[in-house]
Amino acid sequence: QNYDARQLQRYLTETLKKNTPYDTVLAELIQGEGTSDSHGATNFLLRYDVEPGPLAGAVSRKFLGVSLQCAECHDHPH
Hints:
mainly alpha
């Protein structure tokens, strides 16, 4: 209900235009400080309802290129 994809997209667009370092962008997305309407990065957490399982899966898949979601149900060798 509080998730606003437009704010998240605006945040990402602005950080790319400013050439913000990747580690800074990721830290802001994962920390999610502020409200969804005033700080676009917060919407990344809200997209996953700040639930640890889905959030960890999204972070690993989007930023590390590794899928951890299979490990929730299966004994994954990696």
